[in-house]
Amino acid sequence: MPNLDFYAVDDDWSSVLETVFDLGLFRVFESDSELDRELREFHTAAEVPDGRPGRSLALFAVGSGPGPVPTRIDFLPGVHPDATFRYCCEGWGLIQLYHAVAVGAQELRWSHTNHNTEKRAAAWAATLPRLGDPDEWNWPAVTSASGRLNRAIRRMAVSKIGSHPVLPNAARFIEDNDLRYEYGTGIHAAPAPGYGRSMTRP
Fold first, then answer.
1. Hey, which of 27, 37, 88, 153 would disulfide with 60, CB 3.0 to 4.6 Å?
2. Which residue(s) pair with 122 in the sheet?
3. Domain boundaries, the chain
4. How far apart, in whole angstroms, are the C-alpha atoms of residue 139 and residue 129?
């Protein structure tokens, strides 16, 4: 499967970013630009900002295809009082890397990697002609790079909850806050509403 859901907080994310650059496989872009700014490419882990712009990245496996498409999105009047546009990073074979957040001390959501499959891209090609022909992408190269990243993240884990790797700082956060119930898109301190029990960690 192309996706990996995993638990990461604080310095775990720094370790994941270092791994992304150390693998030497990717060009790294922000998924969405800041308001009224061009889309940025990052060349080192230190360049990736804290906060929203650094939580969602688009990875282009070098040599896997024609590369990212920066798509400008113009805002309707009044949508953003102080901005008129932003850019998003698109491409059939780009790999998403998203760092999720802790919701107070009550919930930790999955971070994840994911990317299109060749079959899905072909099915949507007529709907999104701006992205070009999916056949221009080297899908085995996309899958190979994604798999290497996922395996590297798995090796960083100190435990698993279900099928989800848990990185070191996330493990401490889960333990310290007694997060026991996994459902929805993460692990929680309380069971799912309406259920006596939910899937729990060991």
1. 27
2. none
3. 4-74+84-157
4. 18
Question: Residue 46 in 3-state DSSP?
Answer: helix
Residue 141: Cβ within 10 Å count: 16
Taking only the tens place, the pLDDT of each residue in 2-42 is: 799 999 998 999 999 999 999 999 999 999 999 999 999 99
The string of DSSP letters for 137-155 reads: S-HHHHHHHHHHHHHHHHH
17: how many CB neighbours lie within 10 A of its CB? 21
H/E element, 20: helix 11-22
The answer to whether 9 and 174 are in contact (CB under 8 A) is: no
Query: How far are the Cα atoms of 47, 116, 164 from residue 129, in angstroms, in the given order?
Result: 32, 16, 35
